[in-house]
Amino acid sequence: MTRLADRASAALTPSLRTSSKLKITVLSGGPSSEREVSLKSGQAVASALESLGHDVCLADISPDDLSALDRPADFVFIALHGAFGEDGRIQQILDERGIRYCGSGAAASALAMDKVATKCRFMECEIPTPAFDVVTAGRIDKVLETRRPPVVVKPIAEGSSIDTHIVRDAGELRGILEQMCERYGRCLVEDFISGPELTVGVLGDQALPPIQIRTGRGFYTYQAKYIDDTTEYLFDIDLPEDVLARICELSVRAHQSLGCRDFSRVDWMVDAVTHQPYALEVNTIPGFTDHSLLPKAAARAGLSFPALCQRIVEMALQR
């Protein structure tokens, strides 16, 4: 594990070119169910960029109020999580206006936001992912014939583990599927992988040191991500070095397979017995809060939070 961190650190030597002061608009908030987290991410990013001497405007934004984009700016830093921020809509608007911004473009963002489309792309690119079904109200009986708990049931286009269920009791599965289909129209059910939960940040074309997530809540829920202070984030991971190296390589491949750019975070489950890794999803705008994993991994590789934000700005401006 130390060798992985050392390699990442060597490849990510900070380059804080603060002599060029930029007018930067940081977009946060938004209309999604992850709004509160986004507000915190935006504040953290804005403070970091201001500390480097940039002229920063922190702005809330929504599909019905795009006035934040009327302020002249050299660059837009997107800190919007979930719908509107990660599904390609704000990226499309920025593209149409000719405004430079960080992160993945509209098409890659839309693809990564759709967990089913993401998993299909993973399969095309030989990136292992848990077996799954797409469930609609009319397919519940068929799915119940072929899927047996434990399984994971989740929305197809939500983040932060919102409405994600690990179902271990067959008697509960029908009710949860019916509830999810009523709420979202369709949902995803996938095999539950028993073992360590890992996440790998990608910066440019480089994997950051993997992090193992350990929580007392059964899995990494919204509360475990943003509220609990007992959730553990481990860099000393009890897995073979070659397994961790493969997960890092596959994380970069997953990022690239969706057409992502600049940065992302790839979530994994690792089978406790076989050590086979399974990719769950790619987060194109991961959190930038004090609980967030991309900044933790960057710090492990030698990048402070301001340096990480500056590196993201620089990568985007070099396109």
Structure description:
- The protein is an alpha+beta fold.
- It has three domains: 2-8 and 112-128 and 194-317, ATP-grasp fold, B domain (D-amino Acid Aminotransferase, Chain A, domain 1); 9-102, Rossmann fold (3-Layer(aba) Sandwich); 132-191, Dna Ligase, domain 1 (2-Layer Sandwich).
- Helix content is 37%, strand content 20%.
- It is built from eleven helices and 13 strands.
- Strand 8 (197-203) and strand 9 form a beta hairpin.
- The radius of gyration is 19 Å and the shape is globular.
- The protein starts with a helix and ends with a helix.
Q: How would you summarize this macromolecular structure in one to three sentences?
A:
This protein has helices at residues 2-11, 35-51, 89-97, 106-113, 115-124, 140-146, 170-184, 222-226, 241-257, 293-300, 305-317, and strands at 23-28, 55-60, 75-78, 132-136, 151-154, 165-167, 186-191, 197-203, 206-207, 211-214, 232-234, 263-270, 277-283. It has 319 residues and is of the alpha+beta class. Helix 2 (35-51) packs across helix 11.
Question: Helix and strand succession?
Answer: HEHEEHHHEHEEHEEEEHEHEEHH
The biggest sheet, with number of strands, parallel, antiparallel or mixed sense and barrel status, is: 6 strands, antiparallel
> How far from one another are the termini?
32 Å
The CATH superfamily of the largest domain turns out to be ATP-grasp fold, B domain
- The CATH architecture of the largest domain would be 2-Layer Sandwich
The Cα radius of gyration reads 19 Å
Counting copies of identical and different chains, the oligomeric state is single chain
Give the CATH level 1 class of the largest domain. Answer: Alpha Beta
Detail the poorly predicted runs.
14-18
Mean pLDDT across the residues is 91
Helical/strand content category: alpha+beta
